[in-house]
Design a protein that fits this description.
Keywords: Signal
Radius of gyration: 17 Å
CATH topology: Neuraminidase
GO molecular function: zinc ion binding
Helix content: under 10%
Distance between the termini: 11 Å
CATH architecture: 6 Propeller
Strand order of the largest sheet: 1-18-17-16-15
Shape: globular
Number of helices: 0
Protein name: SMP-30/Gluconolactonase/LRE-like region domain-containing protein
Organism: Amphimedon queenslandica (Sponge)
Oligomer: single chain
Mean pLDDT: 70
Order of helices and strands: EEEEEEEEEEEEEEEEEEEEE
């Protein structure tokens, strides 16, 4: 990764274009062939590419506890945990529009096509159009912090206060679970175009990158981050990684 974009925000909107994967190729999924409750995905002996990012190049102030971000075309979607879903210009940071969710606080975010999924601090996930029109609501039996879909339709869901990521089939049945360590707080998950899985880990202030087999291939340390929430890869240029810091009501961009 040549450059890293760091967004210091309280609420992060995040989306990634995952690589197309073949359902018949076991190597094209994150640990699809074994039950990963027994797997610690962080292997101390694995060779990794460690990167440290220290200086933001630009700051955009005025957010109410921003957490998750996601880029769609020339727009940045940002969820404010104490406010609304904000939509910004990706180049200038200008606020273009905003919309509210029916109940609770905006939290997690996932966008595919014209569908914007926003979780609140409870068990509801609201579906909007890109323009902010409410489309529907989904109720979950458990609290979730982050959701991502791969292009096989598998759904990856972080548990709230554990190191586990649960994977579900299209029909809602559980596929498998894997761990990103023994003492951690994974916040945001997403895929790049090669099918690698990016996991933002709150306590270690780092982003861990796993390949399709589940092996750790890179650790991106972010020592200037105080309270890391979401991460996002720019689908137009994956040399840029956006990371949200909830401790400040700011948007910092590091190149």
């Amino acid at each position: 990764m040549k450059f890293v974009l760091l967004l210091s925000v309280s609420l992060l909107v995040c989306f990634i274009q995952a690589a197309s994967v073949s359902p018949d190729d076991c190597a094209n999924l994150i640990n699809p062939c074994r039950r990963t409750e027994e797997l610690s995905a962080i292997d101390a002996e694995a060779e990794t590419d460690n990167v440290t990012v220290r200086t933001p190049s630009r700051t955009i102030p005025g957010f109410k506890t921003p957490i998750y971000i996601q880029i769609v075309g020339n727009e940045v979607f940002l969820t404010e945990n104490k406010g609304k879903v904000q939509v910004l210009d990706v180049h200038t940071g200008e606020r273009l529009r905003s919309f509210s969710i029916p109940s609770g606080r905006p939290h997690g975010l996932f966008i595919r096509g014209n569908r914007v999924l926003v979780t609140n601090t409870g068990r509801e996930t609201y579906s909007f159009t890109l323009s902010g029109e409410l489309y529907g609501v989904h109720y979950s039996p458990i609290k979730t912090i982050s959701v991502a879909l791969d292009y096989n339709g598998l759904m990856y869901i972080n548990e709230w206060n554990t190191c586990k990521i649960n994977v579900y089939n299209i029909d809602g049945t559980k596929f498998h679970t894997f761990s990103v360590g023994s003492s951690c707080y994974p916040r945001k998950i997403q895929f790049d175009k090669q099918g690698n899985l990016y996991v933002g880990e709150h306590h270690s202030k780092a982003v861990f990158v796993f390949d399709r087999s589940g092996s750790l291939i890179r650790k991106i340390s972010l020592p200037t981050i105080t309270f890391m929430d979401g991460i996002h890869l720019n689908p137009l240029d994956e040399d840029f990684l956006y990371v949200a810091d909830r401790s400040d009501d700011l948007l910092n961009i590091v190149l």
